[in-house]
Amino acid sequence: LPADLRVDPREAAPRLAAWLAEQPGVNVVWGTNVTGVETGTVHTARGPVHGDQILLCVGHDLDRLYPVQAEAHGIERCRLSMARIEAPAAFRTHSAVLTATSMLRYDAFTAMPSATALRAEVTGHSAALLDVVANVMFTRLPDGSVLVGDSHAYDDTEIPFQDEGTTALLLREAARVLGVPEVRVTERWQGVYASSARGPLLVQDVATGVRALSVTSGIGMTLSFGLAAATFDGALRATA
Length: 240
Prior knowledge:
Order of helices and strands: HEEEEHHEEHHHEEEHEEEH
Structural class: alpha+beta
Largest sheet: 6 strands, antiparallel
Number of helices: 8
Distance between the termini: 37 Å
Strand content: 25-35%
């Protein structure tokens, strides 16, 4: 994907927050839990914050504030096994790299006529990857290291325990695709995002003047800019 726009999440989030904090009329409050939301008021651990229009963007934690709406949309937590590796000497590309399992993850690809044949091919030689709902892909970071992902597991809550067999499977497949005997891992972690079988996006007015927005699939970073623009431009309609 040579035209792909990529950011490093661990740098992008704090930089966005720092930029927002410098904008007129913006007040970023750190270390503060939201304990409840109702028309005109956000209740926090530091006291109430008032506003005519409230946008509730809490991702997979919507059930902490509006459990009925989260349950109605079928929101679950999707856990990802992620790793950061040293780039093999032969890996010189700076583009994001997708593999066959990626083609089986995203609607833009699964809608293609060849998707059924591709799934049969992957099942024939790498069925274990499908068992862990793998999406083997690579992204080079600015420091030269490479992000490798990922597997997917779904539940109402995220458990802290990661299956080492799943991680080993992903790393073996990464090494195979990269054409090296093995890869050297420098970091591992678990990612979590909201997921729903009922659709990739939740936009719902949960109370008068309170709109909840969550990307309920693995394309949050893809949709984020358009979702934000459509929300603030007033072009996005809420579902019932």
